[in-house]
C-alpha cells in the first residue's frame, strides 16, 4: 500500500481522485460472496403449476440490478432468463421480477405435463461471481380408479376388473383387498400409453367366493411414493347367475325362410345385452333387456332364396356375471323340408288349430295388402316344457305393433296383452308366465317384425285353445293415400274406338279396388261397366316407385255411338284401405262427333296444309 500511495502521489493529477475511488469500489466488490440454494427435487402434478425453488444470497444488500443475471436451463436449453437489460421467458416458464430483488430466482412451470420431467439448472451471476445448481422435477399424474361393480358367482372362478386411468409414473402399485385384507390370487395387468404420455392400466384378479364369505367388500387400491395417500374404489359383492345360451332354428312352411331364435335363460340380475352375428360380423345393434325377466329371446330371419347366404349365424350374450361374452353358433344349412321332422307331442292337435287360424289371416293379408306379408303362427322346438310360438310380418312402411291372444275351448280369454307402445320390447302378463317379445328391423325403408309368445302349458287349461297373433298397422295415413289425376280421353268419333285413362299414384299398400261407372244422358242412375262388345277393360299391373308407393293406370276402350253415347258420362271409381270414402273422377258429358262433321273437319285440315305448302313454295321460288 505504501508503494501504491507513493505512485499515486507521484503521478496524481487532474481526475486521479476519481480513478482511486473506482478502484477501491472494485476491490471492495470482489470481496462480496454469492451463495445459491435449491432442493434436490420437486414433484409436479399434471395440469397444475409447479415452482422450482432457487434462492441466492450476497454479502451486502440491497442487491444491485446492474451486476445481476439469472438463467434457467432444461436439457441444456435456456428456457428463462433475467438481467438488468432484458427479461426473457415463455408462457409456460416464468421468473418473478420483483422476487428476484429479494434473492428469489425460482422458476414457475405452468400447466405441468409429463414431458416436463427432468433436470433443471438454476444459474445466478452476481458479477464477477457465478454459481449454478441442479434440481430434479418428478411428475405425478393422479390416477382415476374404478372397480367394475358387477355381480359374481359362487363356487366358480370370477374375474374381477379394475381400471386405473391417466396416471404417471408407471410404477403405480395395484393392491386388491377383501374386507381390508390383501387378496391373494392370480391376475393380469395390461398397461397402455396414452397420447399425453400418461398410462392406463386394466388390472384383473381371479377370485372364488364361497358361501361362508357372505357379501365381502372388495377394494382396488393404488399406491405410489408421490401420492400423499392411497387412492381406491370399493363395492359390496352381490351374487348372480350366468345365462345359458342356446340357438334354435325353424323353417317356415313354404320353405323360403329360416327363423333362428337365441334364448338366454336362468340368469340374474336382469340387465343383459344380446346381438346377432353373421359369419362373425355384427348385423344389428345390441338388444338390451332391463326388466324383471330371467329369460330372454331374440329372433332373426334368413331368406333362403338369396345368393349370399352366410355359412354361420351366432348369438352373442353379455351379462355382468361374465368376464367375456358367451357365444352360441349354428351352421346355416339349406335342406329340403322333407328331410326335416317335427314332434309336437301333447300339443299336436293344438298346433293344427293354430295353423288354421293364421292361414285365414295370411291369405286375407296377402290378397289385400301386397307386398305386405304376414306368416302363419309357428312353434319353435324347445327342449324343456315351455312352448314358444312366433309369427312374422314384413314390408310395411311404418313400425308395426303386435298383440297376442289366447282363447280357451270355452271361449274364455286366457291371455291378452295390451298393444305395445313404440320402442317397447316386452310385455309380461301379470299373474302368469306368458312372455311376449317382439324383434323389429327395417330395410329399404320398410319395416319387419318377428314376435314370440312363450309359456308353460297346462293340459287342463290350454287343451284345444286358440291363439291369435295380430299385427296393428296404421293404414289411414295421408302419406300413402292414392292421388287421382284427371281422366285423359281421346276424341269420341261416331263408329270409332275411344280411349280413357285414369291414373292413380302415391298409394300403399298395393290394394286398390278400381272400376268404371256409367250414367246415361238425362239419368241419375249409375251402373258398373264390364267387358262386352262395346267395352274393353285391359288388366293393368301396378308399378312400384322408388319411395315404395304404387302407381296404377286404369284403361277403358269403348266403341262410340252417337245415338247412345252423346250426353252420357263415365266415372273412374277407386277404393283403398287408407280412404274413408272412395275417390271418383268424371269424364264429363261425352260429346260425339258425327260422320259429316268428321269429313268437314278433315277437309278444313287438308285446306290448311295445302295453303301452307303454297306459301312455303312461293317463298323459295
TrEMBL record:
PROSITE patterns: IG_LIKE (PS50835). It holds the Pfam family C1-set. Residues 1-33 form the signal peptide. It comes from the Eukaryota. The chain crosses the membrane at residues 344-365. Residues 47-138, 143-224, 243-335, 482-591 form the Ig-like domain. InterPro entries: Ig-like_dom, Ig-like_dom_sf, Ig-like_fold, Ig_C1-set, Ig_sub, Ig_V-set, Immune_Resp_Modulators. Keywords: Immunoglobulin domain, Membrane, Signal, Transmembrane, Transmembrane helix. This is Ig-like domain-containing protein.
Amino acid at each position: 500500500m505504501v508503494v501504491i500511495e507513493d505512485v499515486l502521489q507521484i503521478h496524481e493529477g487532474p481526475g486521479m481522485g476519481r480513478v482511486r475511488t473506482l478502484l477501491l469500489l472494485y476491490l471492495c466488490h470482489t470481496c462480496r460472496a454469492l451463495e445459491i440454494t435449491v432442493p434436490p427435487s420437486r414433484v409436479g402434478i399434471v395440469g397444475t403449476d409447479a415452482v422450482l425453488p432457487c434462492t441466492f444470497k450476497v454479502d451486502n444488500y440491497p442487491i444491485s440490478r446492474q451486476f445481476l443475471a439469472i438463467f434457467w436451463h432444461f436439457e441444456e436449453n435456456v428456457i428463462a432468463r433475467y438481467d438488468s437489460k432484458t427479461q426473457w421467458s415463455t408462457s409456460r416458464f416464468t421468473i418473478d421480477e420483483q422476487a428476484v430483488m429479494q434473492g428469489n430466482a425460482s422458476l414457475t412451470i405452468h400447466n405441468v405435463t409429463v414431458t416436463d420431467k427432468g433436470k433443471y439448472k438454476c444459474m445466478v451471476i452476481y458479477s464477477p461471481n457465478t454459481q449454478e445448481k441442479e434440481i430434479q422435477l418428478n411428475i405425478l399424474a393422479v390416477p382415476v380408479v374404478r372397480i367394475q361393480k358387477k355381480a359374481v358367482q359362487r363356487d366358480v372362478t370370477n374375474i374381477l376388473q379394475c381400471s386405473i386411468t391417466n396416471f404417471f409414473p408407471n410404477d403405480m402399485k395395484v393392491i386388491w383387498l377383501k374386507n381390508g385384507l390383501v387378496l391373494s390370487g392370480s391376475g393380469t395387468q395390461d398397461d397402455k400409453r396414452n397420447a399425453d404420455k400418461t398410462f392406463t392400466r386394466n388390472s384383473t384378479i381371479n377370485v372364488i367366493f364361497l358361501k361362508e364369505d357372505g357379501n365381502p367388500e372388495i377394494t382396488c387400491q393404488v399406491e405410489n411414493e408421490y401420492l400423499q395417500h392411497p387412492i381406491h374404489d370399493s363395492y359390496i359383492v352381490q351374487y348372480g347367475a350366468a345365462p345359458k345360451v342356446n340357438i334354435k332354428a325353424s323353417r317356415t312352411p313354404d320353405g323360403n325362410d329360416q327363423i333362428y331364435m337365441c334364448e338366454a335363460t336362468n340368469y340374474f340380475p336382469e340387465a343383459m345385452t344380446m346381438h346377432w352375428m353373421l359369419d362373425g360380423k355384427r348385423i344389428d345393434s345390441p338388444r338390451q333387456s332391463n326388466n324383471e325377466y330371467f329369460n330372454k329371446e331374440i329372433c332373426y330371419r334368413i331368406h333362403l332364396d338369396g345368393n349370399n347366404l352366410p355359412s354361420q349365424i351366432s348369438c352373442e350374450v353379455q351379462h355382468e356375471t361374465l368376464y367375456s361374452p358367451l357365444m352360441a353358433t349354428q351352421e346355416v344349412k339349406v335342406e329340403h323340408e322333407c328331410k326335416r321332422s317335427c314332434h309336437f307331442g301333447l300339443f299336436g292337435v293344438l298346433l293344427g288349430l293354430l295353423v288354421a287360424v293364421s292361414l285365414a289371416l295370411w291369405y286375407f293379408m296377402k290378397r289385400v295388402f301386397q307386398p305386405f306379408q304376414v306368416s302363419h303362427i309357428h312353434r319353435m322346438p324347445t327342449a324343456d316344457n315351455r312352448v314358444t310360438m312366433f309369427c312374422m310380418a314384413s314390408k310395411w312402411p311404418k313400425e308395426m305393433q303386435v298383440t297376442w291372444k289366447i282363447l280357451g275351448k270355452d271361449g274364455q280369454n286366457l291371455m291378452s296383452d295390451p298393444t305395445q307402445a313404440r320402442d317397447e320390447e316386452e310385455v309380461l302378463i301379470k299373474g302368469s308366465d306368458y312372455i311376449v317379445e317382439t324383434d323389429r328391423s327395417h330395410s329399404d325403408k320398410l319395416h319387419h317384425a318377428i314376435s314370440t309368445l312363450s309359456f308353460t302349458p297346462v293340459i287342463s287349461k290350454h287343451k284345444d285353445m286358440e291363439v291369435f297373433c295380430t299385427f296393428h298397422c296404421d293404414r289411414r295415413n295421408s302419406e300413402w293415400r292414392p292421388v287421382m289425376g284427371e281422366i285423359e280421353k281421346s276424341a269420341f268419333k261416331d263408329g270409332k274406338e275411344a280411349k280413357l285413362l285414369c291414373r292413380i299414384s302415391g298409394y300403399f299398400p298395393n290394394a286398390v279396388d278400381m272400376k268404371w261407372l256409367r250414367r246415361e244422358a238425362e239419368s241419375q242412375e249409375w251402373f258398373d261397366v264390364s267387358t262386352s262388345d262395346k267395352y274393353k277393360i285391359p288388366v293393368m299391373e301396378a308399378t312400384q316407385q322408388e319411395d315404395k308407393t304404387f302407381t296404377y293406370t286404369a284403361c277403358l276402350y269403348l266403341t262410340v255411338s252417337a245415338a247412345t253415347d252423346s250426353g252420357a258420362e263415365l266415372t273412374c271409381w277407386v277404393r283403398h284401405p287408407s280412404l274413408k270414402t272412395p275417390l271418383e273422377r268424371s269424364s264429363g258429358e261425352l260429346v260425339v262427333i258425327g260422320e259429316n262433321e268428321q269429313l268437314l273437319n278433315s277437309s278444313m285440315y287438308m285446306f290448311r296444309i295445302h295453303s301452307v305448302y303454297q306459301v312455303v313454295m312461293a317463298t323459295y321460288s
